[in-house]
Amino acid sequence: MTRILMFLGVAVVLSACGADGEPVRPSLNAGLGLSSSGVHVGGAVGVSKGPVTLSVGL
After folding, report:
1. Alpha helices in 17-52 (DSSP H)
2. Quick one: average pLDDT of 13-33?
């Protein structure tokens, strides 16, 4: 799982810098939930280029 996240992070950074064409917009969403069963943490990482968005939830 860690290797997949590292690969996605490297892919986002390289594509966001515009080295292979028009840059894409990276995004990061994080959330924190509190309920009677405890604290829950979640998030998502993604990239957007034009009308297309690719996001992975964590």
Report:
1. none
2. 73
pLDDT band at 48 (very low <50, low <70, confident <90, very high): confident
Q: Provide the token pair at 38.
A: 């405890």
* Mean pLDDT value of segment 31-48: 88
Amino acid at 37: S
Q: Indicate the length of the chain as a whole number.
A: 58
Q: What are phi and psi of 14, to 5 degrees?
A: -65, -40
- Compute the distance between CA of residue 54 and CA of residue 58 in angstroms, rounded to an integer: 13
Q: What's the rounded Cα separation, in Å, for the pair 35 and 29?
A: 20
Do 56 and 46 meet the contact criterion of CB atoms below 8 Å apart? yes
